[in-house]
Amino acid sequence: MRAWVAALPLANFSATARLLVEALRSMNRLRIAAAERLEALEVLRGPVNQLAGLVDRQIIGASFPLPPQR
Q1: DSSP state letters, 35-60
Q2: pLDDT at position 60, please?
Q3: Predicted local confidence at residue 69, as pLDDT
Q4: Is 68 inside a domain boundary?
Q5: CB-based contacts of 66, cutoff 8 Å, min separation 6
Q6: Residue 45: inside a domain, yes or no?
Q7: Reduced to 3 states, what is the DSSP secondary structure of residue 6?
Q8: What is the pLDDT of residue 45?
Q9: Nearest of 6, 3, 7, 40 to residue 24 by alpha carbon
Q10: Residue 8 pLDDT
Q11: Is residue 46 in some structural domain?
């Protein structure tokens, strides 16, 4: 999981967001021990927080309604 996170294309917001959502959906379908799930989520926390910060910066100061996604 750590290697996968390290290989995320963080410079490409849309691609990274898509990959993270896909990973979270896949994890939700797995039957794994709670400790393993927590460990995996902790690994994903950094990139998810980074993307959330980018979204915040995009939205702050934007006029509403927001323009269509690119």
Answers
A1: HHHHHHHHHHHHHHHHHHHHHHHHHT
A2: 80
A3: 73
A4: no
A5: 59
A6: yes
A7: helix
A8: 96
A9: 40
A10: 94
A11: yes
Q: Which domain holds residue 9?
A: 2-58
What pLDDT is attached to residue 36?
A: 96
Quick one: CA dihedral 58, 60, 61, 62, positive or negative?
positive
In Å, what is the CA distance from 30 to each residue of 33, 40, 55, 60? 9, 12, 28, 36
pLDDT of residue 43: 96
Residue 25's SS3 state is helix
pLDDT tens, position by position, 15-70 = 999 999 999 999 999 999 999 999 999 999 999 999 998 887 777 877 777 777 76
Separation between Cα atoms, residue 28 and residue 32, nearest integer Å: 9
What's the rounded Cα separation, in Å, for the pair 9 and 5?
9
User: Cis before residue 9, ω within 30 degrees of 0?
Assistant: no
Please indicate, yes or no, if residue 67 is contained in any of the structural domains: no
53: its two tokens: 């910060």
